[in-house]
Each structure stands twice: as structure tokens, then as C-alpha cells.
Write a structure and sequence with these properties.
Distance between the termini of chain A: 76 Å
Structural class of chain B: alpha/beta
CATH topology of chain B: Rossmann fold
Helix content of chain B: 40-55%
CATH class of chain B: Alpha Beta
Number of domains of chain A: 3
Number of strands of chain B: 5
Number of helices of chain A: 11
Shape of chain B: globular
Largest interface: A-B, 24 and 25 residues
Number of domains of chain B: 1
Order of helices and strands of chain A: HHHHHHHEHEEHEEHHEE
Number of helices of chain B: 5
CATH superfamily of chain B: Response regulator
Largest sheet of chain B: 5 strands, parallel
Oligomer: heterodimer
Radius of gyration of chain B: 14 Å
Radius of gyration of chain A: 66 Å
Strand content of chain A: 5-15%
Largest sheet of chain A: 5 strands, mixed
Strand order of the largest sheet of chain A: 2-4-5-7-6
CATH architecture of chain B: 3-Layer(aba) Sandwich
Shape of chain A: rod-shaped
């Protein structure tokens, strides 16, 4: 894997750097090759020059030999015609010497050796070749002796040695220079080949790098996308590659996370819907059950009245039960509708200025005559208890709590109703001395169909009163709560924000 | 049909039902047969009364406070002295008849019920019971 820093250099930056390095390498290889070519060209020039110098040297040597040949022929025979090579060589020599000296002047060393050769030739011409011919014209015998003797031969041999010297040195130097040039050129070619091989390797390297940092991650992203499309939303990619490619894997993972989260959300929503559907069908089932119980009384006692012989007293009693149970059915239907509206948020609550004190007074008056065993003790301040709300709904809450207080204190006793206010809230409390709420039921007492010991005590009710009361109080922006001890009674209270005086 | 049956030989019926009116109605439905009645408003007191009175027939509601009717029924069936006592389950849960029969009910009567239907069921069970005599 490539080292992945916190801020990876971008892929394009890396590619540009790689390409630049490649270009540099190729340029260097070509530079070295050009150097090799130049070196070889230079060596060729030097060789050509060396050959020219050799040719000129040989020309010079031939002229000197011509001088010597003419000289010998003339001196030994005295014939003027045999002096022809000497004459022509003598005429050609100065020009040839100049040309030689001009040619052999590329280095100081060469110039020095050329000068030595030239001066030894000049010396030979001045000291021997010219004087001997002059003397031969005046006294041929004397010169003949000199030419035949070793004198002339040694003079010429000296000059010829210098020629040999010069030529061999010139050739050796030329060979050394050529082989050095050859060597440098070989080295340069090797370096260029190495550079080109390195470039080729670099190109392969860049290819591999691209494959690893683009092709493979791209394939994995594609495979991941296919898995996602196939429904596996837990698919995540190992962040890899550099720069833009790594960003791609991160972006892919973010996308997968979002997809998974939204699917989870959908599933949860679905589950909530199923749950609410279940609750709804449970409610329907409970409603059916709750309705059937009073209906059983209504139908059952009606059958008894229709089919059996009963006394007048019995008839009145049964008709009373039928009426009460029919009313109970009606009240249940209203409660169910209220609950349904409250749960659907369809219950409209008026926002009028209501004096909770007068609501309490009306309701306690309605309940006062209901039970001879109960005493209603109402405590209200002389000033109003103003709230914003719906007087009918607030009356329903007070009636519910009052009715509970009376129902759940079957042995009678005092029911204390108190209303008071401060700047923030109006508070209403209703306290009874009844059976209280068993501890195990207290947590759920505001839930639907939770009825304390009501059934055991034969206390009627839908089990919806407190649920409805709580919803109504909350719809007024208030809260409801209670305190209860089993066997000692309960106190329920609710608080609703005090309306600002206007 | 003879109301003048001696008190000591009268069949006893335990009514285990939380609704007062319905207890009255059951009593009325069976009243002409001259049975003696015991009444219990919840599961635990129903079981206690059954053990104490050893009734000839039990009319049992399913939706009972304290313990559910099915619970009571299972316990009755497990008790040696009450295992064979005929039980009529009455319930507003009309779809719980299967569960009731499975728990050991002899008859299931759905609420609301016709008093005559309940009486016929009770008579049939008590007549059955009388066969070995």
C-alpha cells in the first residue's frame, strides 16, 4: 500500500512529477548520446588531421629524398640532367615546408616537433644539399669523395630519423586520441542506453503505479457499488490509493453510510407504523370488548323482561340497569371518539379566556347531589383563575377527576376541591379519602384502560378518563399528576399557564 | 323444573364475573332451575370460593381482575378435586373460544349472551353430570 498521510498529495501532482522525471531522464539520455556523437565526430576530425599531417610529412620526406637522389646523381656523374630531381625538389621545398608547418600546429608540442623537423631539413639543405652541388660544379672530384663517404649518408640518415620520429610520435598520439575518443564514446553510449533502460523502467513503473493507484481502487469502487446496488448497504471500502482516488473511496463510504442510515430510518418508520397499526387493532379489539359488556346487560335484561314473568319491582330494577348500561355505552362511545381525536391531533381546543374557578363551581354543583355518602369541600380564592382554553374541555377534566374521586371512595368521605393561582400557573387539586391506587398501577395510571381496582369494586368506567384528561390538560399547555396511597386515598392535580390579564 | 327441590340436594353454581349486572343476569338466567349461587368478582376470590364450596358448575368470565379467567381455568383443571367440574366460559372476547376450550372449558358462551342459551348450556352440563347416579 501507499503511505497515506493525513493530507495525501494529489494524484495529478504525482503523475506530473513522474512524467517530469521521465522527461528529464530521456533528455539526459539524449544529451549523453549527443555527447558521444560529438566525441566520435571530433575523433574522426583528429584522425583526418593526423592523416593529412602524415601525408604532408611523407611529401616532405619524398622531396628530401629527391634532393638527395639528384645530388648523388649529379655529383657522381657530373651530368646536369641528373640534377633535375634536385632542382624541382629545391623549388617545391619552401612551399611544402610552409604547408607542413601550418598543418602541424594544432598543439604546442606538435608545433615544437614540426619546427625541429623543419629546422633539421633546412639545416640539411643549407649545410649539405646546396653547398655540395655548388662545390661539385667547381671541383667534382673532391665532392665525389665526400658524397661517396659516410658524410652525406649520415646527414640524410639524421633527417630521415627525424622524419621517422615525427611520424611515429604523430601516429602514436593520433592512435591514443582516437582510442580515448572511442572509449568516451562507448561510455557515453552505455550511459545513454542505461538512461533509456531507466526511462523504460520508469514508464513501466508509472504504468504499475497507475494500475495500483487508479485501476485497482476503481475496480474495488465498482465492485462496492455493485454490492450496494445488490442491497448490501453495510458495504464499506478500505481507503486506498492517493489523492483524488482516496477521496473517491471516502466519498463512497459516506454515500453508503447515508444510504444505510436512511434505510434504517425507513425500517424504523416502518416498525413504528406496524406498531401503531398493532396498537390500533388492539384498541379496536378492546373497544369491542368494552362495548360488549354493557351491551350484554342491555340485551340480557331485555331478554329477561321479554321472556320471563317478572314482578313490577323487578321490571323497574331491570329497566334501570338497561338505561344505565345504555348510557354507559353512549359515554364509552364519546370517550373512544375523544381518544381517537386526541391521538389523531384532531381535537380542537378553543383559546378563550376561561375562569377555572367558575368551572369548578359548576361541576361541583352538578356532582354535589349525586351521593349522600360524600361531602364536597370546595376551596376557591375570591378572584378569578384565568387561563386560555376551552371551558367545556376543562369542565370535562374537572368532572373526570371529581367522578373518579367519588367512584373510588365507595365508603364515602370528604372530597376536597381546591383552586389557586400564582403568576405562572393556575392549579386545581382534587383529593379523596378512597381506596387509593395500588403502587404497581401508579406508573401506568394515565394509560388507556388502566382502571385500578375499579373492576373488583364494581366501579364502572371506560378506563379512558385519565388518559383523556391528561391529553386535554397537555393540549392546554399544562401538566397533570397525582399522589396516592393505597387504602388512604388519592390527590390528583393539574396546572395550566395563567392567562395574562388584558 | 321443580323449584321445590330440597336445599341440601340443590346444585351449586359459582359465578366468577367482575360486572355486577352480569352476575345478576347469570343468576336470573339459571334462577328457575333452583340452583344455589356463589359469586366472586375476581380471579383469586373465585378460585378460593371454588375450593371451599366445591360447586357443581362454574360460570367463568375471562377478563377478570387479579388473575385472568384462563389462568383460573388452568388452575382449576390442575386441582384434583376440581378437575372434573364443568366450566362455562363467558366472554366478550368472542375469538377466545378456542383458547378457552384448550384450557379446559366445557362450553363457551360469547357476550352478549341470550339468557336461555346460557341456561340450556348449564342444564346440559349438569344433566350429564347426573347420569352416573
Amino acid at each position: 500500500m501507499f503511505p497515506s498521510n493525513r493530507r495525501p498529495r494529489s494524484l495529478s501532482a504525482r503523475l506530473v512529477a513522474g512524467s517530469a522525471l521521465l522527461a528529464l531522464l530521456v533528455a539526459a539520455a539524449f544529451g549523453v548520446l549527443a555527447f558521444a556523437v560529438t566525441t566520435l565526430d571530433d575523433a574522426t576530425k583528429r584522425e583526418r588531421h593526423a592523416k593529412a599531417v602524415s601525408a604532408e610529412t611523407l611529401q616532405l620526406e619524398r622531396l628530401v629524398l629527391d634532393l638527395d637522389t639528384g645530388l648523388r646523381g649529379f655529383v657522381l656523374t657530373g651530368r646536369e640532367d641528373l640534377l633535375a630531381p634536385w632542382t624541382s625538389a629545391r623549388a617545391a621545398l619552401p612551399k611544402s615546408l610552409r604547408a607542413f608547418q601550418q598543418l602541424a600546429s594544432t598543439t604546442a608540442e606538435e608545433r615544437r616537433r614540426a619546427t625541429t623537423l623543419v629546422s633539421s631539413i633546412n639545416q640539411y639543405v643549407a649545410d649539405y644539399a646546396v653547398p655540395v652541388v655548388d662545390i661539385a660544379r667547381t671541383s667534382p672530384a673532391a665532392t665525389r669523395q665526400a658524397v661517396v663517404s659516410q658524410e652525406g649518408a649520415s646527414q640524410l640518415a639524421a633527417v630521415r630519423n627525424r622524419f621517422a620520429d615525427f611520424l611515429s610520435t604523430e601516429n602514436a598520439l593520433a592512435a591514443a586520441r582516437t582510442s580515448a575518443a572511442q572509449r568516451r564514446s562507448n561510455e557515453a553510449i552505455a550511459a545513454a542506453i542505461a538512461g533509456l533502460i531507466a526511462s523504460a523502467l520508469l514508464i513501466i513503473g508509472i504504468g504499475l503505479y497507475l494500475a495500483r493507484s487508479i485501476a485497482r481502487p476503481a475496480r474495488e469502487v465498482a465492485e462496492g457499488a455493485a454490492r450496494l446496488a445488490g442491497g448490501d448497504l453495510t458495504t464499506r471500502l478500505e481507503p486506498q490509493g492517493v489523492g483524488e482516488i482516496e477521496e473517491l473511496t471516502h466519498a463512497f463510504n459516506r454515500m453508503a453510510e447515508r444510504l444505510e442510515a436512511s434505510r434504517r430510518e425507513l425500517e424504523e418508520q416502518n416498525e413504528r407504523l406496524r406498531e401503531s397499526e398493532r396498537a390500533k387493532s388492539e384498541l379496536v379489539s378492546i373497544v369491542a370488548h368494552e362495548l360488549r359488556t354493557p351491551l350484554a346487560s342491555v340485551l340480557g335484561f331485555t331478554s329477561v323482561l321479554l321472556q320471563r314473568e317478572v314482578t313490577d319491582e323487578q321490571r323497574r330494577e331491570y329497566l334501570g340497569i338497561i338505561e344505565a348500561q345504555a348510557r354507559r355505552l353512549g359515554a364509552l362511545v364519546n370517550d373512544f371518539l375523544d381518544v381517537q381525536h386526541l391521538e389523531a391531533g384532531k381535537l380542537s381546543i378553543a383559546k378563550e379566556l376561561v375562569d377555572v374557578g367558575s368551572v369548578i363551581r359548576q361541576q361541583t354543583e352538578l356532582f354535589a347531589g349525586q351521593s349522600p355518602k360524600h361531602l364536597l369541600d370546595v376551596s376557591l380564592p375570591p378572584t378569578p383563575l384565568p387561563v386560555r382554553g376551552d371551558s367545556n374541555r376543562l369542565a370535562q377534566v374537572v368532572a373526570n377527576l371529581l367522578s373518579n374521586a367519588i367512584k373510588y371512595s365507595p365508603d364515602g368521605g370528604v372530597v376536597r376541591v381546591a383552586g389557586n393561582r400564582n403568576d405562572d400557573v393556575v392549579r386545581v387539586s382534587i383529593q379523596d379519602e378512597g381506596v387509593g391506587i395500588p403502587a404497581e398501577l401508579q406508573r401506568d395510571i394515565f394509560d388507556k384502560f388502566v382502571r385500578g381496582h375499579a373492576t373488583a369494586e364494581g366501579i364502572e368506567g371506560s378506563g379512558l378518563g385519565l388518559a383523556i384528561s391528561r391529553s386535554l390538560v397537555e393540549a392546554h399547555g399544562g401538566s397533570i399528576d397525582f399522589k396516592s396511597t393505597k387504602g388512604r386515598g388519592s390527590t390528583f392535580w393539574f396546572e395550566i399557564p395563567t392567562a395574562a390579564p388584558n | 323444573m321443580t323449584a321445590a327441590r330440597p336445599e341440601t340436594t340443590a346444585k351449586t353454581v359459582l359465578i366468577c364475573e367482575d360486572d355486577t349486572n352480569l352476575r345478576t343476569l347469570v343468576r336470573l338466567a339459571l334462577g328457575e332451575e333452583g340452583y344455589r349461587f356463589f359469586e366472586a368478582p375476581d380471579g383469586p376470590s373465585g378460585l378460593a370460593l371454588a375450593r371451599r364450596t366445591q360447586p357443581d358448575l362454574i360460570v367463568l368470565d375471562l377478563m377478570l381482575p387479579g388473575r385472568s379467567g384462563l389462568d383460573v381455568l388452568r388452575e382449576l383443571r390442575n386441582a384434583r378435586d376440581l378437575g372434573e367440574t364443568p366450566v362455562i366460559v363467558i366472554s366478550a372476547w368472542s375469538h377466545s373460544d378456542e383458547a378457552a376450550v384448550q384450557a379446559g372449558a366445557d362450553r363457551f358462551v360469547a357476550k352478549p349472551f341470550d339468557p336461555d342459551e346460557l341456561r340450556d348450556a348449564a342444564v346440559a352440563l349438569l344433566e350429564d353430570d347426573r347420569v352416573p347416579e
